[in-house]
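Async update (no meeting this week)

Hi team, since we skipped the sync, here's where things stand on the single-chain job. The sequence we agreed to prioritize is pasted below, unchanged from the tracker. I ran it this morning and attached the output directly underneath so nobody has to dig for it. Comments welcome in thread, and please keep replies under the output.
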Amino acid sequence: MKDFTAVILDLDGVITRTASLHFKAWKALFDEFLHDYDNQQEPFSAEDYDQYVDGKPRHDGVQSFLESRDIHLPMGTEDDEPGEHTVYGLGKQKNTFFHKLLDEEGVEIFDDTLACINQWKEEGKKLAVVSSSKNCRPVLERAGLIDQFDAIFDGKDAAAKDVTGKPAPDIFLKAADMLEIDPTETVVIEDAIAGVEAGKRGEFGMVIGVNRNQQESAMKKAGADLVITGLNELK
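Output:
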């Protein structure tokens, strides 16, 4: 880590444990939808989350999972009601479920990640958070970490600036631009396959996969230079 001047971290699953809340919200959404649409469908699973949803922008996740079940819905518009059978409607419903879970369960921070963040700040490294979630800033605020980072680029920023989400590298490259650091001098830390692939495509100096869900081989295949189970292994 001493060879690099900046670190870009994913939020859910790297800094906070909100990945579990996202999974619960997606499962609540899709199980309800599948029951109404075609009750012969298998329920949404952890494997579905890892393969089709994790790390992607919300509407891309909706489309990716539905296509895996050979279900094709209209895109709809931002004006669609939560739960309406459109991509936007389902995306809004997922966000409703997520905020309910966030209020009920709160935000838990990975202690080893927090220790590394504090150490890297002391060493003078520049730090950024990248997330496909449009809830990134509210989660960081609730966790008391919003002021710990030199740059934040999330799903809201990507939508406002028409930036392609993971597995494209664009949001990581935007964060590096905000830090004014060359990607070759920057470490990307991700827990999602799509995020690891994005870091590799962006030709960052090092891409580290945090293996929370037995995905070591998939992370290496996606381009991770190093796979760890927790950031304490970097010390």
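Quick observations from my side:
The chain has a mean pLDDT of 94.
Residues 18-37 form the longest helix (20 residues).
Reply here if anything looks off.
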